[in-house]
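User: Could you go from structure to sequence for me? I need the amino acid at each position, not a summary. C-alpha cells:
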C-alpha cells in the first residue's frame, strides 16, 4: 500500500504532467476528481474584490468564470489573511463563520494561499461546495505543494479583467 507521502508525490507528478500537456484548468479538474467537492478554483484579489482567475465546476464544466464578489464574502479571505489553510466541513456548524455572508450558500471549503517566497499573496487555491463535505478527503500537503509550484512556475493568471462594455 502507498504511504500518504508517496500518494502526495504521485498526485503531484500527475498534476504537473497534466499541467504541461493540457493546461491549468485540466490539471485543476484532475486535482478535484478524487474528491466529491463540486468546485475548484484559483481566486485572485484586487483591492476589496475577489474573482476566480481559473474555475472548474464538475456539474457545469463548460462554465469558465464566476462573478466578482467582495473579498470579505469569500472564505478565501481567511486563507489570505491568516497566510495558511482554511478549512470548514459545514459553514452552518462552524462558529468561526457565524454571520459570514456566504455561510448559507457555500457550505464546505478547503483553501490554501498561493504566495511568493517573499510572502506576497497572489491568491488562493481552493475546493468548495454548496453542501457540507468531509475535508479529510483533500490532501492538504498536495494543495500546498501545488500552490507553491503554481507560483514558482508563474502559472497563476492575473485577476480576471472585466468584459468590455457591450461584449457578448
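Assistant: Here is the amino acid at each position, in order:
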Amino acid at each position: 500500500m502507498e504511504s500518504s507521502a508517496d500518494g502526495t508525490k504521485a498526485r503531484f507528478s500527475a498534476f504537473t504532467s497534466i499541467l504541461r500537456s493540457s493546461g491549468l484548468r485540466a490539471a485543476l479538474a484532475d486535482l478535484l476528481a478524487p474528491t466529491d467537492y463540486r468546485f475548484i478554483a484559483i481566486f485572485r484579489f484586487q483591492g476589496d474584490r475577489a474573482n476566480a482567475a481559473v474555475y472548474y465546476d464538475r456539474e457545469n464544466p463548460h462554465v469558465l468564470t464566476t462573478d466578482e464578489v467582495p473579498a470579505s464574502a469569500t472564505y478565501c479571505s481567511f486563507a489570505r489573511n491568516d497566510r495558511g489553510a482554511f478549512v470548514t466541513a459545514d459553514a452552518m456548524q462552524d462558529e468561526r463563520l457565524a454571520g459570514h455572508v456566504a455561510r448559507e450558500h457555500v457550505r464546505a471549503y478547503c483553501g490554501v494561499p498561493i504566495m511568493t517566497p517573499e510572502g506576497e499573496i497572489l491568491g488562493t487555491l481552493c475546493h468548495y461546495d454548496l453542501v457540507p463535505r468531509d475535508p479529510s478527503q483533500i490532501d492538504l500537503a498536495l494543495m500546498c505543494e501545488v500552490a507553491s509550484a503554481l507560483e514558482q512556475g508563474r502559472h497563476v493568471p492575473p485577476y480576471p479583467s472585466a468584459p468590455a462594455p457591450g461584449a457578448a
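One structural detail worth keeping in mind: Residues 164-168 have pLDDT under 50 and may be disordered.
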